[in-house]
Amino acid sequence: MSGIIGGLSRWITNLQPVPVLDDRYTFIFGSGNIGPFPTLFVWTVAVLVVAHVVFRKTTFGREVLATGGNRIAARYSGINTTRIRVTALVICSFTAALAGLLYVGRLHSARYTLGETDLLTVIAAAVTNYVHTHDRGRQRLQDVLACVRLGTTVDRAGRRLFPNAERTLKG
Description:
Layout (H helix, E strand, L loop, with lengths): L1 H12 L4 E2 L3 H9 L1 E2 L2 E2 H19 L1 H11 L1 H6 L4 H27 L1 E2 L7 H11 L10 H12 L3 H4 L14
Antiparallel strand pairs: 1-4, 2-3
Helix pairs in contact: 2-6, 3-4, 4-6, 7-8
């Protein structure tokens, strides 16, 4: 599906960047300053504050943490885990869209290649999550994904792969 969307965006834009000429948009979404602070910093603080309040102070946040920690236990506790998972995916999509708006606002143009190089790094960070594998047979995959996240090779990563010198999770 992403290949189809990427091809459509290339065809529509004729491989050219699309300039954003609206100064209000670029001010709000990345190129302006509010006092001494860049608007990107303001957006970052705002999103972090909202996320903190939602995850630490609301029932929904506790349900997300419970579902992420142990879906079966959360389901037995009466949490609608399907609703939580779908809502979490919608929130992730919303934040990805916001990131795209901020990219465009900062660069004053839209291009079909924006963010393409970030995808593998984000996937590697999400998959590894700085956690070592629980199965020794999967250790090589863990090492490769950690190296993608670190931007290095397995040979050069050295001790950065395991800062606490543990190779598997205990428990």
